Amino acid sequence: MTATFRTVLLALLLGMASASSAHATTSAADTSIWVGTHGRVSSWRPVAPNKLVLWASPSRPYLVTVWRPVQSLRFAQRIHVSRSGGRITRFDRVTIDGERLPIVSIQRIDREVARELRFSREPLAF
């Protein structure tokens, strides 16, 4: 099984699982990441030109989509994520190589799915 096929399959499975969940509507808890007043993101990894996985802790990964694709995201050494009152919300921004990009969406994802996601130039189906 190729890596691209596996990534697409995982994305489709995640999409079906989230669509069939009892919490089909988005609540405030689903659209923000609690990092605390002095907290920061534990880890991050780019998975598409406009998507990255942020770990608030080793057990809490989130898929974050930024406003537009940034080709340098794949090679970025550091990013900065603004936060409001100890939370990262859709009103915050991700700064990549000096470019401030608004966050479009934040979605909690399964830890195993987050570990399997690899960078893809094609859009992910989330």
Q: How would you describe what is shown here?
A:
By secondary structure, the chain is an alpha+beta fold. The protein has a six-stranded antiparallel β-sheet, with no helix packed on it. A hairpin with a 2-residue loop joins strand 2 and strand 3. About 11% of the residues have low confidence.
Record the SSE blueprint.
Layout: H1 3-19, E1 32-34, E2 43-48, E3 51-57, E4 60-66, E5 79-81, E6 87-89, E7 93-96, E8 99-108, H2 111-116
Antiparallel strand pairs: 1-6, 2-3, 3-4, 4-8, 5-7, 7-8
Sheet/helix structural class: alpha+beta
Give the helix tally.
2
Task: State the strand order across the main sheet.
Answer: 2-3-4-8-7-5
H/E series, N to C?
A: HEEEEEEEEH
Q: How many strands appear in the DSSP assignment?
A: 8
User: Roughly what fraction of the amino acids lie in strands?
Assistant: 25-35%
Largest sheet: 6 strands, antiparallel
Mean pLDDT, as a whole number? 76
Cα(first) to Cα(last) distance is: 21 Å
The whole-angstrom Rg is 14 Å
Helix percent reads 10-25%
Key descriptive features of the protein:
126 residues, alpha+beta, two-stranded antiparallel ribbon, 2 helices, 34% strand
Quick gist of this model?
The protein has two helices and eight strands, in the order αββββββββα. The chain has 126 residues and is of the alpha+beta class. The chain is globular.
